[in-house]
């Protein structure tokens, strides 16, 4: 992963992991079911994005752009499948799952770190 976009993607993953842990700590006063649900939502988001980054940014040849596009779409399908499997497993395994906390954490970890990275990236360029 030497490409500049790969470095930015890794930076976003780093921010997502930190932000997910912060959300989990913030959720602790609301009880362990809420905090665990937040952790599951944040962790699912991070794992899915880490899969996407690893899949898309592995070594490639610039001459084979159609393969790169296929790799990107394949990574997106794998990401969605992983999200569905992890959310399904959480729903089946954990009885006290708080769906608003789970989905809210997933959404926040997906959106906020990307906005932070875009904001800080624009300052350094």
SSE topology:
Layout: H1 4-27, H2 32-56, H3 65-93, H4 99-124
Helix pairs in contact: 1-2, 1-4, 2-3, 2-4
Can you characterise this structure?
With 125 residues, the protein is mainly α. Helices cover 83% and strands 0% of the residues. It has four helices and no strands. α1 packs antiparallel against α2, α2 runs antiparallel to α3 (65-93) and α2 crosses α4 (99-124).
Keywords:
125 residues, mainly alpha
Ends distance: 20 Å
Strand proportion, as a percent range, falls in under 5%
Average of per-residue pLDDT values: 88
Task: Show unreliable segments.
Answer: none
The profile of the biggest β sheet is: none
Q: What best-fitting shape do the alpha-carbon axes yield?
A: flat
Task: Note the run of SSEs as H and E.
Answer: HHHH
Give me a quick take on this structure.
With 125 residues, the protein is mostly helical. The protein contains four helices and no strands.
